[in-house]
Design a protein that fits this description.
The protein is an alpha/beta fold. About 45% of the residues lie in helices and about 15% in strands. It has a six-stranded mixed beta sheet. A four-stranded parallel beta sheet has the order 5-4-3-6, sandwiched between helices. Helix 9 links the parallel strand 7 and strand 8. Helix 1 crosses helix 8, helix 3 crosses helix 5 and helix 8 crosses helix 9.
């Protein structure tokens, strides 16, 4: 487990490098849910997602020699963008390995930030093979997207900010993929407010953490195109940190369909005046679909990222609710 003390140390370490994001009440969702619902606006983070927190916490703990050699990571987009930004900020350089499923707008932004990009295969597991090769051949330092205590602690600072903004929170809705955000937020929230529920929300197809929790051990899943592209990818069969933490700390995992994710994106745009990507919309999707068990008390949904391709966003805003080739 990553401790509350470790998360508090991460907050101090990264405080000059990240943005403390607001927690705002949603009148529309509160009326729908019959209780106060607030939104944690992490899509307003400097790189458009929560990932900057963990990436910065990790980069700041490397030795100068490790920084000089450079860092490498597999990514579905947002971790790569965050790591590229964080590496550049301290004079290092990142190499980001991604599959062909990563949207081009995310790849382009990573290149703009000065990173070296490798596009490999059709899954995050295949991209990880390229990461392992670069570590062996070039001596780069790995900064994994989720399964590392430095990453989890950095993401856990989101939970600290939620508790401080809403001390009586009853449930936190966390987008769930590899589990770095969910594990960190759950560790922070439950250390301060043990009775609060932390609920992971993810897409129906290719939900690796949900499949692993159900199986009782990490498993591989097939990856599909999704509005929630940032939630794609496996958790790693040798997962050491996020799988046991999510299995222990999450109170539930809720699955939402592509149609429901699209509805969440539209709601955020029309009612909350927020442009968010599919992964950031899954908490709203769960609320709109009525899939959450009754919660007695305030709810906070984390809008984890806003790095959606704007042409796709326009299509969704105009009614697109399925994604496939050509969308």
């Amino acid at each position: 487990m990553v401790s509350l003390e470790t998360i508090e140390q991460a907050r101090e370490r990264i405080s000059r490098h990240i943005r403390i994001t607001p927690v705002v009440v949603s009148a529309a969702l509160s009326e729908l849910a019959g209780t106060q619902v607030s939104l944690k606006l992490e899509h307003r983070q400097l790189t458009g997602s929560f990932k900057l927190r963990g990436a910065t916490n990790a980069m700041l703990q490397l030795t100068q020699s490790e920084r000089d050699r450079g860092v490498v990571a597999a990514s579905t987009g947002n971790h790569g963008r965050a790591l590229s930004y964080a590496a550049g900020a301290i004079g290092s350089r990142a190499t980001i390995c991604m599959s062909h499923l990563v949207p081009e707008n995310k790849v382009a932004e990573i290149r703009r930030l000065g990173a070296r990009v490798r596009i490999v295969g059709s899954s995050q597991d295949e991209a990880q093979v390229e990461v392992d090769r670069l570590i062996a051949e070039e001596g780069l330092s790995a900064i994994p997207p989720f399964d590392h205590p430095w990453i989890i602690a950095g993401q856990g600072t989101v939970g600290l900010e939620i508790i401080e903004a809403m001390p009586d929170v009853a449930a936190v809705l966390v987008p769930l993929s590899g589990g770095g955000l969910a594990a960190g937020v759950a560790a922070a929230v439950k250390a301060v407010r043990p009775d609060a529920k932390v609920i992971g929300i993810t897409m129906e197809r290719g939900a690796a953490m949900k499949a692993s929790i159900d199986a009782g051990h990490p498993v591989q899943v097939e990856e599909y195109r999704s509005f929630a592209d940032s939630l794609g990818g496996g958790i790693g069969l040798a997962n050491t940190w996020t799988y046991p933490m999510c299995k222990t700390l999450l109170d539930d995992v809720v699955l939402v369909s592509e149609r429901e994710i699209a509805a969440g994106i539209r709601h955020a745009y029309a009612c909350e005046r927020a442009i968010i990507e599919g992964a950031g919309a899954v908490g709203i999707a769960a609320l709109l679909s009525g899939k959450l068990a009754q919660v007695e008390g305030p709810i906070v949904a984390i809008l984890s990222g806003g790095n959606i391709d704007m042409a796709l966003h326009m299509k969704v805003a105009n009614g697109l609710d399925t994604i496939g080739e050509g969308n």
